[in-house]
Amino acid sequence: xxxxxxxxxxxxxxxxxxxxxxxxxxxxxxxxxxLKPRDILPSxxxxxxxxxxxxxxxxxxxxxxxxxxxxxIQKGRGTxxxxxxxxxxxxxxxxxxxxxEQTIKDxxxxxxxxxxxxxxxxxxxxxxxxxxxxDLRYLFIECKVSSCIFYxxxxxxxxxxxxxxxxxxxSENILIESIDNADVIVTRTDLAEKVKRFAYTAQKTVISVxxxxxxxxxxxxxxx
Length: 224
Fold this sequence. Notes:
This protein folds into three domains: 18-93, Arc Repressor Mutant, subunit A (Orthogonal Bundle), CATH 1.10.10.10; 97-128, no CATH class; 137-223, Glycerate kinase, domain 1 (Rossmann fold, 3-Layer(aba) Sandwich), CATH 3.40.50.10350. It is built from ten helices and six strands, in the order αααββαααβαβαβαβα. It has helices at residues 18-31, 44-51, 55-67, 84-93, 97-109, 114-128, 146-158, 172-181, 192-200, 212-223; strands spanning 71-74, 78-81, 137-141, 162-166, 184-187, 205-208. The chain has a four-stranded parallel β-sheet with strand order 4-3-5-6, sandwiched between helices. The chain has a two-stranded antiparallel ribbon with strand order 1-2. Strand 3, helix 7 (146-158) and strand 4 (162-166) form a beta-alpha-beta unit. The longest helix has 15 residues, at 114-128.
């Protein structure tokens, strides 16, 4: 579908540069499915004229979004939203759109100035960085051999991590839900490939207790 009439808003008084404002608005339209895979965006000239800004600004925005895998720029076809697999990957890696939307609604209901709240959050990040990290959540799958039990016991002894154990015979739904809720999945070497198939879409770390490299990674995590 062609979206030559897309309407963007820019605020010349905002501390955010205009190119960042438009770029983030396009990402929001993609994240909320208002722009779908293969949809055609306005040309650089159309969008520049609509917003009364320099054409080079739109070219920069489109180029940046192309580098991020969200847009395709082809001669004769114009600028399009990327294929479905790229967009699905983007949504999985950035699942915060609904959270931000609800936060802004709550901010309005509480009577706060939304821009002040957002800028205050930005200032907080500059001053203090990331908030304190929560303890990692470990999931041990089919941990019945001595080596696997050793690492489970070490994590319990040396950290305050949240630990769950399940058997590989558990239903597929339980396995997927457990993997989704974990940060790190630990399993036996012979089960690693099967577990990785489930963990791939959730982009979770899978560690095999039979792999020297994996065990080194696990021990590093325990020591942190």
